[in-house]
Amino acid sequence: xxxxxxxxxxxxxxxxxxxxxxxxxxxxxxxxxxxxxxxxxxxxxxxxxxxxxxxxxxxxxxxxxxxxxxxxxxxxxxxxxxxxxxxxxxxxxxxxxxxxxxxxxxxxxxxxxxxxxxxxxxxxxxxxxxxxxxxxxxxxxxxxxxxxxxxxxxxxxxxxxxxxxxxxxxxxxxxxxxxxxxxxxxxxxxxxxxxxxxxxxxxxxxxxxxxxxxxxxxxxxxxxxxxxxxxxxxxxxxxxxxxxxxxxxxxxxxxxxxxxxxxxxxxxxxxxxxxxxxxxxxxxxxxxxxxxxxxxxxxxxxxxxxxxxxxxxxxxxxxxxxxxxxxxxxxxxxxxxxxxxxxxxxxxxxxxxxxxxxxxxxxxxxxxxxxxxxxxxxxxxxxxxxxxxxxxxxxxxxxxxxxxxxxxxxxxxxxxxxxxxxxxxxxxxxxxxxxxxxxxxxxxxxxxxxxxxxxxxxxxxxxxxxxxxxxxxxxxxxxxxxxxxxxxxxxxxxxxxxxxxxxxxxxxxxxxxxxxxxxxxxxxxxxxxxxxxxxxxxxxxxxxxxxxxxxxxxxxxxxxxxxxxxxxxxxxxxxxxxxxxxxxxxxxxxxxxxxxxxxxxxxxxxxxxxxxxxxxxxxxxxxxxxxxxxxxxxxxxxxxxxxxxxxxxxxxxxxxxxxxxxxxxxxxxxxxxxxxxxxxxxxxxxxxxxxxxxxxxxxxxxxxxxxxxxxxxxxxxxxxxxxxxxxxxxxxxxxxxxxxxxxxxxxxxxxxxxxxxxxxxxxxxxxxxxxxxxxxxxxxxxxxxxxxxx
Length: 790
What we know:
Largest sheet: 22 strands, antiparallel, barrel
Shape: globular
Number of helices: 8
Radius of gyration: 26 Å
Distance between the termini: 30 Å
Oligomer: single chain
Structural class: mainly beta
């Protein structure tokens, strides 16, 4: 197992440095109305009312005219949820996966997502972390713990959350300081993967109006994958050095400082630092899941096909991932750090500063945010023991944002909100890949095919506002919009090309100056026919900005128009009904949206390059239901059902690997009109229960949850060979709690049926028979966990 000491030092130093130097970012939603970092009890007050901030003000989940799935701290604790992937497992219609290159993560909601393989793309589902907006897929790598609440806002959220949220927003609210000394500590061990976790937090009142909360989390995982790679008589191959994969370790820490005097002014400062390491992200995301017409995973070099003797095409815990020989990696940036063996490392810092002036009828809010991250990875991308196709990447990312907002709370029928937002971003992305088994460059000794740096500098200015009019005491009309002006200046070029490949790759310097202006209106009508009931109808719009594909492969024929992309837009309607009837809380919703110019990035193994496209259009229609029924204080049921139908329109997608003319491949690509988008099951559903009984002064609790998904395509090229069939997954837990909940011992089971299913996939480089690799779900996880509260 890996030690935490070095990781702890790095994360703590980063936390200190950014905390002192950064314009500390924006605290999110729990403070927007009150200016306080509210405790969980504030969010779950009388009758377990759940308070959400989907419209940047505190409202009951049953009153807000937005489709929201809210996970309380109790929901998150049920299965030890501490990252976005696990949050996705608890939310119907939400699929989240890590990736090994490019954007390094993929967030899918209602079947709408953005390819993770393109570093220039921003995700269609953004993540709001204590008020700081992130549209980067790398958020899937971060650890999110000691959370007060998670809100998954479905559909376009442009009015309140701005650009890059056309499919939805995942809003994370961490716990803040309380007015008394308290905290907790917990430790857990997962048996199958050798996963050890430790977590704790302490809240300390420093003065009457000043409090601090410090939370830390550490995790070390050996792995659930077995790497069977062996040395082969193929040039430059060496076996993978680690048998158990992916070999993760991470350390995260958060500090929160809240100043809440009786005066109108209050402020909350939060800072989260994260450090992560693994033995190559491909160990989780590049398992060969379809061999096409071949008998084994293969790689083709110079017309010669090599079949992997230790690889298979099964969705299991076996893989074959070779490394690059040390002499090949010696002059290869990033790759030489581990002597040609796969690895990933990632550091991030996220800060927020929220300041409020609350004059009862008028609330002024300032939200300042910063996100800074650095990631390096080297990996084998042919998915075999031969490791003849490999890439090294480095991304440095920074964004600083500032928002000012004014909200009124007049006694009359008319109220309004107005605000302005500014964001400055910088992204530096370096890729160096080897796609041909050529000898060393006689001048430099390099074996890699190219070295390709790229940068994007962006600025965003937006103004937004909303007017709310109470037509009747129980009938509200809201109308508003957001105007956004965005600029992105990008540069991409091959700074080095192997001389033996000079006729293949482009030497031009590509410069792209992207500008866009967008107005996204939103109108909603909300009716409360009875207490604790809501009917609403809304017209909503959104967009995701365009730019340049920094992961593009620059071959000789590449033009600027082939590697840039336009903004993605959406508009449509949403209708919903919510209500609480005794112990039953239920929500129903129906929606219809039209997406245009969906941003798509897919890999073409025939030329070892990515294809960047804006899809013609996509029509979406769906209906969803969720409920929670409390039979008593001891027993409750919960469930959901989602029907979601996405269909492409007027779109020729790239042909999938191995697709023939008889199967629909043409010179223009494949016509996917009428086909669903990737990772878009038509039916998903959940069902679960919680049961607690007293045993003397102690409490015994049990939970169980089932998840169902119908079949779906897993990759952008809609390959039938990598299509995931319908499946079910089951989770369960047992808990024993002491009086006053001071001690707790839990046994947690995730995916206890050991179902292996593909989350996302791509056509595999180096193959000639239509092979795909992808990210396969973790197998059964059994964890024992102990917790103490004080």
